[in-house]
Design the sequence.
């Protein structure tokens, strides 16, 4: 129940709302009644000096007034907006045939773009596309890849370990998917596994705690380094749309034997004389991915008969490839979530 004073305020306010013919007039009614120094505001301010038995009623009244008047103002505001729209459409300047304001469309992240492109290329070569967990077991990330706990190669992987479970970590490479593939797929098979990896790195222009790799694995009878080179050449031709010279240098990775570093002739200074540019650091070669023949122990870990089958694997630096592709000079842009950067793609 409102007191007569409150009823008077309500009626005056509702009359003001009904009479308001534009948004400015409505705002003035809003201020007069609901503003800090408005009629309702004064009721609220008076509560602290009122006798205790009246305080509750004053509070209830103030709230009731707020609701009624606020609701009426909102309703009137909508009506005024609709009226203004009708008036605008009826005026001479309104052309209903003009196209509307264009919708803001987003775009795919450069990593997503390149990932999808590579998936298309490898799919066309008969590769399955696999996925694996980003929180991995030590067994899959290290043990089964021939990197036991005391192996010096573990020091190459600055690892984020999970609290509370010594066996859980954020995968440091996409290679654990190899083991999962060996366990579940029947040779012969070809597969890639793109995804995020994590290392506890000091972050700079070429190192990031979160980065993307694409693992590749081919297992079958009589698979040789020749198949590896062929697959890499085919894939590079698709990506850079021309034949690029490649070279293999010996490289040590515990899960392959023999292991290689695959370099590609820098495509950015191929037409220049003398060759060499900032991308290839004047060497004319770009390190692209570690690769090699799958170590027999890794095949055995995955339950595959290493006497019968051989295979090759590669770990493509997806982040690096994205940077090469788009001429991005700082890896931190990729995970930076800066729209000014992302809108360029
Ligand atoms: Zn170059």
Sequence:
């Amino acid at each position: 129940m409102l007191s007569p004073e409150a009823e008077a305020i309500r009626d005056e306010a509702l009359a003001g709302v009904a009479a308001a013919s534009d948004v400015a007039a409505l705002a003035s009614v809003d201020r007069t009644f609901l503003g800090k120094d408005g009629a309702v505001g004064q009721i609220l301010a008076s509560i602290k000096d009122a006798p205790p038995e009246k305080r509750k009623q004053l509070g209830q009244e103030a709230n009731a007034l707020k609701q009624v008047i606020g609701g009426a103002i909102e309703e009137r505001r909508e009506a005024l907006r609709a009226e203004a729209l009708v008036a605008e459409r009826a005026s001479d300047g309104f052309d209903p045939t003009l196209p509307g304001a264009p919708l803001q469309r987003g775009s795919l992240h450069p990593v997503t773009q390149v990932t999808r492109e590579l998936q298309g290329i490898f799919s066309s070569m008969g590769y399955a596309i696999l996925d694996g967990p980003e929180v991995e077991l030590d067994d899959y990330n290290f043990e089964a890849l021939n990197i036991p706990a005391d192996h010096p190669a573990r020091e190459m992987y600055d690892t984020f370990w999970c609290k509370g479970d010594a066996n859980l970590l954020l995968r440091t490479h996409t290679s654990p998917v190899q083991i999962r593939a060996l366990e579940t797929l029947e040779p012969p098979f070809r597969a890639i596994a793109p995804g995020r990896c994590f290392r506890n790195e000091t972050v700079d222009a070429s190192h990031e705690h979160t980065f993307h790799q694409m693992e590749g694995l081919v297992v079958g009878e009589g698979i040789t380094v020749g198949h590896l080179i062929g697959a890499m050449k085919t894939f590079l031709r698709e990506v850079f749309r021309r034949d690029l010279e490649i070279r293999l240098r010996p490289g040590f990775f515990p899960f392959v034997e023999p292991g290689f570093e695959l370099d590609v002739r820098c495509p950015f200074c191929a037409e220049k004389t003398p060759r060499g540019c900032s991308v290839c650091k004047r060497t004319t070669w770009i390190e692209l991915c570690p690769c090699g023949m799958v170590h027999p122990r890794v095949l055995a870990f995955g339950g595959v008969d290493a006497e019968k089958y051989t295979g090759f694997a590669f770990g493509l630096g997806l982040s690096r490839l994205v940077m090469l592709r788009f001429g991005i000079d700082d890896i931190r842009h990729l995970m930076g979530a800066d729209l000014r950067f992302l809108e360029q793609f």
About this structure: The chain has a mean pLDDT of 90.
